[in-house]
Amino acid sequence: MTMDGPRLKQPRFNTKKKLVIYIALAATYLIVVMVAGLVMDPEMYGVHYEDSFLAPSLAHPFGTDIMGRDMFWRSVKGLSNSILIGLAASAVSSVIALVFGAVSAVSGGKVDRVIMWCVDCCMGIPHLVLLLLISYMMGRGGFGVAFAVAVTHWPELTRLVRAEVLQVRGSQYVKASLRMGHSWFQVAREHIVPHVLPVYLVGLVLLFPHAIMHEAALTFLGFGFSASTPAIGGILSEAMSHIITGKWWLCLFPGLMLLIAVMLFDVIGEKLKMLLNPGSGNQ
Fold this sequence. Notes:
This protein has helices at residues 4-39, 71-107, 109-124, 127-137, 141-150, 155-169, 172-179, 184-220, 232-239, 249-276. It is mostly helical and 283 residues long. It has one domain: MetI-like fold (Orthogonal Bundle), CATH 1.10.3720. It is elongated and about 80 Å long. It starts with a helix and ends in a 7-residue tail after the last helix.
């Protein structure tokens, strides 16, 4: 019996250890790229026509583009901008989802129907089309992209939060707490918030890679940052016209940097979900 106990706890311990590793990797990658992009001297990815279309080398690990700009530093700056947009947009969108989901579940009636109608409307329109329309209405650019991503990623998380709040609200211990004279604020603080918080945190983490990818997609299509501002979507868009001429490095390395960032946070969300809800999947 004494030997079975540690064995039973081992899978959950491994999951915690993996989660810490993934969080450390993602946080390191995120912080390094963000800080490097914020403090970077623009001259590092400036124009040098004499270095046009240099292949990857020790001097230029990611090569250079048609204007001789160093693709490594330009990609770091572009991903830094994408990460900042992703962080801001996912944070705002998650707060909208938390408020709407909680209000919908607690209020019920017409308020619940109106919020669910808004959710259905947003989810019924193709996401990319909705992003393009909102970004265009807000004047494109960095603000237009951030606004579009922030106000279009809340519907699914709203449904999850609403379902969790409804489940707790209808439980016997919440009803008993209300009958004992506790206020709704006390019930929310002691019962509803601890129950909803894990779902909210997982949803927040999983919003982040979607926000980055959609920001890159909008910029790639010309609705995001201007050509003068480095952005992964813009870099990939510019590279499209040079791929057929053999300039493979223009899209390979920026795309890999974006893919790594997205995959790291996607894995964190999945591992966090398994850790907080062991019955949701295999560990």
